C-alpha cells in the first residue's frame, strides 16, 4: 500500500464500521494490564508482566532468558527504545526501536510490539498472528505459513503503517485497531 487507499483497505474500514463492538474486546489479561500501566517506559516488573500476558504458556522460557539480564539494563534498553525520535526518518526509527527491544533475550517482534503498545497505546498496537490473519484475510499482507511464525522488523513496519492508517480512518487509536483485528479473527467470521 502506498499513499492511496486500496479497495482491500476500504473493505477493511467498512468491516470495522459494521462491527464497532470488536474495538472493545481486549484479549484476556490485557484490560487489567492496561489499568496497571501508565503511559511511558515500564519498569522491569511491568516488562515481565507484559511478557507473561503476551506469551501466556510460552512465557516461562522467555522470562528465564530476560531474567538473566540485570533489571537496570532491561529498563534502560526499553527506555531508550521508547525515547528514540527523528522527524525525517520515522520509519527507520521504528525499525531501530523494534530491533533494539529484540536485542533483549527472550524478546521477539510480537513481545517487543506489546511492550510498545501497552506502554504507548496511543501510538502502537501488538503484532499478533490473529491480527496478521485478519489483515491477510483482507489481502493487505502476505500469508504466514504455520512453520514460519517469526515476524521481522519489516513485518512490524508494514503492520504499524497499516495500523496507523486504519486508526486515522476509524478515529481510533492503533491499540484499538489492533484489538479489533485480533477480535475479528477470534470471532472466525465467514
Explain this structure to me?
By secondary structure, the chain is mainly α. The protein is 62% helix and 0% strand. α6 packs across α9 (153-170) and α8 (129-137) packs across α10 (174-186). The two termini are 25 Å apart.
Summarize the structure.
This protein has 190 residues and is mostly helical. The chain is 62% helix and 0% strand.
* Low-confidence sequence ranges: none
How far the N terminus sits from the C terminus, by CA atoms, comes to 25 Å
* Count of β-strands: 0
Rounded to an integer, what's the Rg over CA atoms?
A: 16 Å
- Helical fraction equals 55-70%
Characterize the biggest β-sheet.
none
Element layout with pairings:
Layout: H1 7-18, H2 30-36, H3 44-55, H4 59-67, H5 71-83, H6 90-102, H7 109-119, H8 129-137, H9 153-170, H10 174-186
What key attributes describe this structure?
single chain; 190 residues; mainly alpha; 10 helices; globular
Amino acid at each position: 500500500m502506498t499513499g492511496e487507499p486500496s479497495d482491500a483497505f476500504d473493505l477493511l474500514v467498512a468491516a470495522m464500521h459494521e462491527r464497532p463492538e470488536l474495538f472493545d474486546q481486549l484479549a484476556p489479561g490485557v484490560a487489567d494490564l492496561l489499568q496497571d500501566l501508565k503511559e511511558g517506559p515500564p519498569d522491569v516488573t511491568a516488562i515481565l508482566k507484559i511478557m507473561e500476558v503476551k506469551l501466556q504458556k510460552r512465557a516461562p522460557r522467555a522470562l528465564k532468558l530476560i531474567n538473566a539480564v540485570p533489571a537496570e539494563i532491561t529498563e534502560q534498553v526499553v527506555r531508550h527504545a521508547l525515547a528514540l525520535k527523528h522527524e525525517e526518518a520515522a520509519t527507520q526509527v521504528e525499525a531501530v526501536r523494534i530491533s533494539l527491544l529484540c536485542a533483549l533475550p527472550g524478546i521477539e517482534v510480537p513481545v517487543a510490539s506489546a511492550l510498545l503498545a501497552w506502554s504507548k497505546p496511543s501510538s502502537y498496537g501488538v503484532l499478533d498472528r490473529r491480527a496478521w490473519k485478519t489483515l491477510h484475510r483482507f489481502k493487505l499482507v502476505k500469508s504466514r505459513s504455520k512453520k514460519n511464525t517469526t515476524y521481522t522488523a519489516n513485518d512490524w513496519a508494514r503492520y504499524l503503517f497499516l495500523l496507523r492508517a486504519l486508526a486515522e480512518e476509524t478515529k481510533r487509536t492503533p491499540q484499538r485497531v489492533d484489538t479489533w483485528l485480533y477480535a475479528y479473527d477470534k470471532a472466525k467470521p465467514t
